[in-house]
Structure formats: C-alpha cells, structure tokens
Design brief:
3 helices; mainly beta; single chain; six-stranded mixed beta sheet
Length: 571
C-alpha cells in the first residue's frame, strides 16, 4: 500500500500554493526583446545582448491580441553591444536609461559626441568631462536619459529647458561639484536618487526638517524627518520625487498637500511605521508600489477622481481595512492589493476593464466582490488566497479563467462561469475545498493542469461535449465526485486527471477516447465498473492503480497496457 501511494504522488504531486504574482511578461518582436505591461499596454525594450548594426525600434508592437506602445529603453538594454552602430528611437519614448548604451558602438564612437554630450534623436543620452561647467540643455531636447550626468565632476550648474516633462533616475547622482539645477514648471515627475551624492545633496543649508526641496519640488528626505510630517513651505510643493520618503522608519503620519496631483512610484515604500496618510482630492495618479509594505497603514482613502492606480500600490499593507475605488479607473494594476489581509469589503469601479496579476491575491478577509460587466481581462492569481470569498460571478467579457485565479479560496462555494469562456486555466480553482457544483459553459474546450485539484466538496460536474483537453491532475483529489461521463470530443485523458477521486463509482468512456494517461484514475478506490470503447488504444502506467473495487470486462488485445495499470485491483 505504501508503495502505491508513493507511485501516485511521484507522478502527480501538486505544486505548493504560491502567492507571488508576476509583474510583467517578456515577448520578442522582430528580433527585439521587450517587457510588456498588460495593464497600461506599454512595452519596454529589455536586455538584448547580441544586437548589431543599425537598429530600428517601432512606436508600437503587436503581441497576441494586444497592441503595446513602446515607452522605454530599459536598464542595460544594449550594454556591451560593440557592433551596434546606430539606432532609431520612437517618438513615443518616455524613458531611456544611459546604461542601455554603455559599451555599445554608438557610445564608443567619438563622432557621435558633441560638446561633451551624446545625443540620439534629440535625447540626451550621456555626458563626459569635456562638457561646460555651466550647461544649458537645448530647448529641442525631448528627453534626458536616466543617469545622463551621473558621476560628472565638471558641471556646477545645469539649466533644464522649458518643455521637459521628467527628470529621470540618478540623472545627477554623484555630481560632486553640482550646486544648482534649474527645474522648469513643465517638469511633472522626478525619478529616484536624482541628486544623491551631488554637491546639492551634500549642502546642509538646502535641507529643511529632513527634506530637500528644490524649485518647489520635494526631491529627497533623510532620517531627521519628523514622525508627523506636515508640508510647511512658503510656496506650495508642486510635486514629490519617486521614493522621496522610502524606508523612513520613523514616519507615522503624513498629509499630502492639495497642490500635488500625483503620488509617485514608491513614494512611501517600506515606511513600516506609517499609520495614516491623508490624500487630497487633487490626486489623479498613484504610482507603482507607492505604499509598498506599509504594514501598519490603516487609512489611505483614495480620491473619487483618481484616474490611475499603479501596480503593487498597497502591496503588503496587512492592516488596510477597506477601500472604495474611483469610477474613473479602468484598470487595477498587478499586485495592487496583494496580501491586504484586513480588507473585508471592496467596491470596484463601474467601468473596470482589466484586473492585473495577483491584484487581490492574499486578501484573506475579503468576503465578497462584484465584478463589473465591463471586465475584459483577469490576470493570473487575481484572487488567489482570498480564503473568505464565498461567491463570484465571472462577467461575460472574460473569455478565460486564468492560471491560479482563485487558487486557495477555501470558502468559495459557488462560481458562475459565462457563456463564451473557452478555457479554465492551470490551478484556476485549485484548493477551493468548499466548491460544491460548477456548470461548465458549452464554449469551454480546455480544462487546465490541476484546474479543480483538491475541490473536496465538488459532487457534480457536467463535462460538455466541446471539451477537447482535460489536462494533468485536472480533478485530482476531488474526493466527493461520484459520477463522470467523458465528453464526446475528448480523445486523450492526461495523466492523473481523476487520481485519488475516492468516491468515484461510475466511469463512462466516450466513443472517441484513444488514450488514458498515467495514473489517470490512480486510487479511485470506489470505482466499480468501466466499459471499454472500440477506439481506446493505450492505458497508461498506474492508470487504475489501487482501484480495489474495480470490476472490468476483459481488455481487448489491441489496447496497450502500461506498467502497474491495474495493480491492486483485487476484483
């Protein structure tokens, strides 16, 4: 008996439940690698270590059914590509990293430099020691690359042009002689660590109560920041830099001024003692990971006019109790409320179209969620680990139940699937131990790996005739499942599909079934009768292992029978 158990488990041992959502996906388009954002439908050029010659990067790329706008050239994207001699950059770019061109033929060719600057398509990529100490950036400049001036010990002053919208990450980092940067009113966002290690950063006279404020922009804070931070500036703060308050362990409360319209990326990242934040009605955007791992945060009411909520905004905010989301939002980013274990109620926007990977994963107290009929896309692990969730109705616009969508929702007793749903993904309902019954739409043709694994209360399921694929372990350990009729369209039953369904009594094989996979009915100890069909060609190893009560007529000689297929079948 022990050996039988080990054989079955070794074939089909299910993966442990994982609540670690994927933030992005990679894709290749015309020999260039990209990282895709399925919420904002944008693409970033990823690492491409082998490109050469002249390169053209398009403004948009099409992957699957989606079209993505190319908005960034990523960190170290072409680093070390000595044979890369030229590149045409799209007008859609919002961010470029200097490091993307380190060691490339473009950067090594001195003919590409002018007055201490490397330019590509009106983008300032890098500077060197031949630059003038006081540098006025030309008004024609549309972007300045992240790190463009980093480590430059020559410059003492930089005047940025009107029309520039962003000062990117580490742009002036370690510019030890830099004393002044003129920031125009057109700048609407400032990246992280922009002035760290610079002469400005080192000047104690520029700091006020733990904050470095330049041209009405809060660009950094330090450990002298008070626990209760109140913005007291003669001229109102107009923007806050990314990660401006990150890792400030002493920060407990903060009131964001009404003069600010955006909470930037990682603004309060890992402020583990932050309890309360007052967000003004003027805020229109909350950037990625804005309150990441603020474990004590209880209150952060989002404004009704909010237009964008980034990925991982409240990731790990385990004490955040409730949230009402703006009806202007059409997307909830990846891992936005990941592990917000205290949230019991959540009102979704009326016009919501997309829910990102792991958006609500680990919200173990969430009892109910009404998905709007406008919903078109649900990401992997969207509600995984929502243990208190009891009932869900999937809108008609969702055509696939994604991987691990409701994995570990242990109190989910009912889920209504829409007509038009074509697939139930891998481990989509794995561990939904309270699920009693499910109606599979006639449009469904695929049931994924361990899709219903360990649905211990599942008693009845109608497998529609359009199903072509029941994958590995799809119904493994559905301990109360008693009766199965395989769909007429099914030709192959994958390994372990119904393994350890200990209450299964009756199995009706369809006429077109050709193959029963390894361990398909392993340890179905209540199974009494199987009628073979004329099409069956293969019965896999351990297929009916330890089916103690099985009574079956003689197996036709043309059927290939695997090792231990009927071992332990005493009758």
């Amino acid at each position: 008996m022990m050996r039988a158990v080990l054989v079955c488990v070794s074939i089909l041992s299910p993966l442990a439940t994982s609540l670690s959502p994927l933030y992005a996906q990679d894709a290749q388009y015309q020999d260039i690698h990209y990282t895709l954002d399925d919420i904002r439908l944008t693409a970033e050029v990823a690492s491409n270590p082998k490109v050469s010659g002249e390169l053209f990067i398009p403004e948009t790329i099409t992957v699957g059914q989606n079209t993505y706008t190319v908005t960034a050239i990523g960190d170290k994207a072409f680093k070390g590509c000595k044979a890369l001699t030229a590149v045409v950059l799209p007008k859609t770019l919002e961010r470029v990293y200097r490091s993307a061109f380190d060691g490339t033929g473009i950067m090594l060719n001195k003919e590409n430099w002018s007055e201490g600057c490397l330019w590509l398509d009106s983008i300032l990529i890098a500077t060197d020691k031949t630059i003038k100490p006081r540098f006025v950036v030309p008004v024609s400049t549309r972007l300045i690359a992240a790190g463009a001036f980093q480590g430059n010990k020559v410059i003492t002053r930089v005047d940025l042009p009107d029309g520039l919208k962003r000062i990117d990450h580490e742009t002036f980092r370690d510019c030890k002689n830099l004393q002044k940067v003129v920031i125009p009113l057109s700048v609407t966002s400032i990246g992280e660590e922009v002035f760290t290690g610079s002469g400005i950063y080192a000047n104690e006279n520029k700091w006020k109560k733990g904050a470095l404020i330049l041209d009405d922009c809060l660009v950094a804070t330090n450990n002298t920041l008070p626990a209760k931070y109140i913005f007291k500036n003669k001229i109102p703060i107009r923007l806050i830099a990314e990660r401006a308050f990150a890792n400030r362990k002493n920060l407990q409360t903060v009131t964001i001024p009404a003069s600010v319209t955006a909470i930037p990326t990682a603004a309060f990242y890992n402020c583990e003692n932050l309890v309360d934040v007052t967000i003004p009605a003027t805020i229109r955007e909350v950037g990625n990971f804005a309150f990441y791992n603020c474990g004590l945060l209880k209150s952060a009411t989002l404004p009704s006019e909010l237009q964008y909520l980034g990925m991982g905004v409240f990731y790990g905010c385990v004490n955040l109790k409730e949230q009402v989301l703006s009806n202007h939002l059409e997307a909830i980013g990846q891992a936005t409320f990941f592990m917000c274990r205290a949230i019991k109620q959540l009102t979704l926007p009326n016009h919501l179209k997309r829910i990102g990977n792991g958006a609500f994963a680990g919200c173990s107290s969430l009892e109910a969620i009404d998905l709007p009929q406008t919903l078109e896309f649900m990401g992997e692990q969207a509600f995984a680990g929502c243990a208190a969730l009891r009932k869900v109705v999937i809108p008609v616009g969702v055509n696939s139940l994604p991987k691990q969508a409701f994995q570990g929702c242990s109190h989910l007793y009912r889920i209504d699937l829409p007509d038009g749903l074509y697939a139930i993904g891998e481990e989509a309902l794995d561990g939904c131990i309270a699920l009693e019954k499910i109606n599979i739409p006639r449009s469904t043709f695929r049931i994924g790996v361990r899709a219903f694994h360990n649905c211990q209360q599942l008693r009845g399921i109608a497998l529609v005739d359009h199903i072509h694929l029941i994958e590995e372990g799809a119904f493994m350990e559905c301990k109360l499942l008693e009766d199965i009729t395989l769909p007429a369209s099914l030709q192959q039953l994958e390994k372990g599909a119904f393994a350890q369904c200990i209450s299964l009594r009756t199995l009706r094989l369809n006429a077109s079934l050709k193959s029963i996979g390894d361990g398909a009915f392993c340890q179905c100890r209540s199974l009494r009768e199987v009628q073979w069909n004329d099409s069956l060609q293969t019965i896999g190893a351990d297929a009916f292992l330890e089916c103690k009560n099985l009574r079956a007529p003689g197996i036709p000689s043309h059927i290939s029978v695997g090792k231990n297929a009927f071992k332990g079948c005493k009758n």
